[in-house]
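Researcher: I'd like a candidate sequence for this fold, 213 residues long. If you have to choose between options at a position, lean toward the conservative one.
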């Protein structure tokens, strides 16, 4: 019995044309009554006095999960869907047509990537999970922060890579920090998005250019 083919997609500046976290966090902060200058200052001082590590995402501290989910859904339709890389989306559709296993592997938030994935029937999401307490976000993450080689750690935790033909599998990313992810498969593709791609050429990775090249 032949093994399945895996198609791994980074999200920001690969599927999308921008860094999603940079836009989502300030947007979420606008919907969070607890993200306010005086409250933030008082909270920071309290954490400092208690010698506690401050939450990673201040914009999300005490934001109700229901509100965060609503903002995430609006963000997908208002920002992400309007800023997709069509060449990469065409590759994603190709892999779906071929019956390959698709996984989004991102350092972005699971919160909005899952909303995006629902639209395109993508089941496997490897991204940053947010901590919840008493129906509110804490501003911290749960588990692995999926950047650089840590993407591989969470990927291998969620999928049994022994079940896949990695030599004939695919990975797509724009970023040099994803060399571990790209090196996992036999068909690595680097997405041009205005960054220096000398590293990709040295490693003889395939490149998907913006224009006709």
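Model: Candidate sequence:
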């Amino acid at each position: 019995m032949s093994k399945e083919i895996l198609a791994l997609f980074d999200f920001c500046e690969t599927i999308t044309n921008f860094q999603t976290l940079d836009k989502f966090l300030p947007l979420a902060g606008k919907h969070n009554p607890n993200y306010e200058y005086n409250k933030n200052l008082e909270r920071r001082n309290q954490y400092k006095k208690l010698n506690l590590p401050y939450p990673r995402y201040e914009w999300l501290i005490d934001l109700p999960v229901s509100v965060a989910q609503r903002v995430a859904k609006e963000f997908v339709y208002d920002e992400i869907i309007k800023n997709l890389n069509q060449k990469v989306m065409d590759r994603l559709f190709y892999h779906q047509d071929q019956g390959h296993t698709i996984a989004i592997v991102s350092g972005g938030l699971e919160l909005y990537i899952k909303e995006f994935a629902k639209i395109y029937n993508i089941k496997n999401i490897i991204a940053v999970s947010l901590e919840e307490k008493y129906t509110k976000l804490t501003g911290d993450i749960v588990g692995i922060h999926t950047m650089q080689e840590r993407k591989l750690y969470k990927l291998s935790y969620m999928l049994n890579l022994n079940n896949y033909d990695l030599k004939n599998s695919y990975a797509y990313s724009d970023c040099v920090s994803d060399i571990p992810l790209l090196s996992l498969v036999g068909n690595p593709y680097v997405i041009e998005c205005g960054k220096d791609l000398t590293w990709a050429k040295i490693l003889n990775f395939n490149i998907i250019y913006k224009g006709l090249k």
